[in-house]
Amino acid sequence: MTRTEKINTTKGLLFISPWILGFLAFALYPLIATLYFSFMDYSVLAPPVPIGTENYAELATDTNFMKAVFNTVFFAAISVPLNTALACFLAILLNFNVVGKSFFRTAFFLPSLVPMVCLGVIWRWLLNGEVGLINQVIGPFADFANAVLGTSFSTPAWLEDPSFTKLGLVVASVWGLGHAMVIFLAGLQEAPVELYEAAQLDGAGFWSKLRHVTIPMVSPYILFNMIMGFIAAFQVFAVPFVMMDGVNEPPGGPGGSMLFAATYIYLKAFQDWEMGYACAMALIFFILIVTLTLTLMKISERRVHYAGK
Amino acid sequence: MVHKILTIAIAATLLTSCSRIQNDRTEDGRTIVTLWTSWAGTEREGIDSVVADFNASQGAIYVRSLNITDPQTKIMLATAGGNPPDIAIMNNQFIAPYAENNALTPLDGLCQSAGITADQFVPTFWETANYRGRTWAIPLTCSVTTLHYNKKIFREVGYDRPPKTLEELERINDLITQKREDGSIARIGHFPLEPGWWRPEWSNWFGMGSYDGENRMLYQEEGWQKAAQWLASYNQRFGKDELIKLRSGFGRFSSPQNPLFDGKVAMVLQGIWMNRFIETFAPDDFEYGCAPFPASQNAEIPYFAIADCDEAVIPKGADHVEEAFTFLRYLLEQGGLEKLALAHGKLTSLKNVSPDFYDDHDHPYLQVHIDIANSGYAKARPQIAQYQNYFTDTNEAANSILYGLVTPEEGLAQIQSRQQKALDKKQLRWSRVEENYQELWQEQIDAH
């Protein structure tokens, strides 16, 4: 290494040192500490007591943990593909040159700026079984169907009936698709116009262009949004916790139907003071998310088209 | 260059250590005692007034009170971080988890020196401050739960007195409950999930709690079996979907839409503080009565009540233990506690109160609450190291059984297994640390 290279390397390291320090203090250290405490009986208030793999053995038979895993995977499996598809669809619509384009883009993005806790409170009211706006809107349709078809549909108690709670959360999660939409929009604008022109010359219509040009061109963005979406879905916490009013009501919702991984980790760590057990759970979810991300990357290798490759 | 590095190093050291360099003296040299409470509104005004009285009464100590939310978590984190307040106010059910984790200062020695003894307190309330043979707290303002019922609705169905047994309460419940044409419930007499604060305790009204006080959870015993049948009878009588729908329309507790105030529910289990909320939020023509909440006729008790206390503790690692205790002694000896209880609209933990206390208290059914507190039928929630886990889990089980999401047998078997496991885990942990902790606590007690 020449002297100039050495100086440049030192300068470079110096410039990124805040990030390196942040990474070491707020990511690597907590990760190692999580691993360490997962083998301890640790209440935070008292010094940790080593207990070997007891926490992991207990997790294997913990029915609430299984419930939390199921609920989290169920929510992620429905909300992520739905939100990604909707975000992509909205981005395509907002990519058309129509009057008021900027207004619509802003309007569709704005809801994703609402803080999580506010979102939880808003949706608790929107999904209220008796006076909620959602049921006020779908109520007349149910009445109409009942009158015409003789059925007995009724509006659901979204937050009280365990069959509907997670669906209510999926509906609420749609509000947060603005970020994914903006990323898709950027991807769409990067797609070369020549490809569309060539497709048009070959007689391609809207759907053919969408299938053979647009989707392949935005495929890296689909992959990115899916991965980010899954990571976020696996960490879902604030909105369901607030929606369930996790103070006096069971934070896991009726029948434990809203007990998600992050909720359970929080309850174990900060309400039951079983930090060691919570660390073991957090680690398992970390491994689950990493595995899922790597699997998605592997599966998508052949399906994602990167420009220039 | 060396100077620059030194300056930066000193500045960094000062910055990182500033959390501990707190000025603990006032300008005139008085020791500052920090007090954390989660009391708000009129309750906050009450403690502020008592603190002001204390600060004016002497010149050596200055109490500074701070209002916090979510006290259980914040006190835990502050104590774990080695920087706790000198006094913290917490609910009685958290004494056991804190004490078991060696996060409180045992007060036995300080109480003995100050002449504070158990016989000065209402026994039910004093018990809440003791755990594993030590005294951890001074119970301050207290309450017992009673049946609050809507007198107008009672008159409507031909009743002019409260029920005497739980079975009679259910008969009145059926009379009061009204359904709309579409089958939905417009009004219900009683709904065990409203409010959600004591759902894990319903088995007590059938003669038995959830914990034997030693090493066994009692969900498979007669008390819970009968309580679960009673809870399940709700979905059988009124319908799961109808109950779910009814409950989803209940408004917030502290609002005019509280289901008791707007007539959706006619009977609720509530504490002495409810009077304040009724005065603030209920309609002007709202008429209510308070009576002991009756037990099942098969139980060996006429009624049951849950005793709750706000307690003052001195967290482990507090800087000014003696000064903090001086303030607590002032509360007990100088009428400060009565002033506080009047501001809170609650009872004091003390057996003897001044005649003025009864005259000044604005609760129309004060005597009912005092009688229940002294009856022997009022008990605190279980002193159990995994209290929050117990609360969350049993709360959820009671919900699921009431709505019929699980059968009573399934629900009880599941929760017995989970909670017994949680208790065993805590007992195992305790067995590992007991000797050390007992020795440490004895040293602390002897030091005072």
Automatic annotation (TrEMBL), chain A:
GO biological process, one term: transmembrane transport
Highest rank taxon of the organism: Bacteria
Transmembrane segments: 12-39, 73-96, 108-126, 167-188, 221-243, 275-296
Cross-referenced InterPro entries: ABC_transporter_permease, MetI-like, MetI-like_sf
Signal peptide: none
Keywords: Cell membrane, Membrane, Transmembrane, Transmembrane helix, Transport
GO cellular component, one term: plasma membrane
Domain ABC transmembrane type-1 positions: 69-296
Stated family: Belongs to the binding-protein-dependent transport system permease family.
This protein's name: Sugar ABC transporter permease
TrEMBL record, chain B:
Any one GO CC term of the record: ATP-binding cassette (ABC) transporter complex, substrate-binding subunit-containing
Keyword Transferase: no
Domain of life the protein comes from: Bacteria
InterPro entries the UniProt entry points to: SBP (IPR006059)
Pfam family membership, one: SBP_bac_8
GO MF annotation terms: maltose binding
GO BP terms in the entry: maltodextrin transmembrane transport; maltose transport
PROSITE patterns noted in UniProt: PROKAR_LIPOPROTEIN
Keywords on record: Signal, Transport
Family affiliation: Belongs to the bacterial solute-binding protein 1 family.
Protein name as annotated: Extracellular solute-binding protein
Source organism (scientific name): Pelagicoccus mobilis
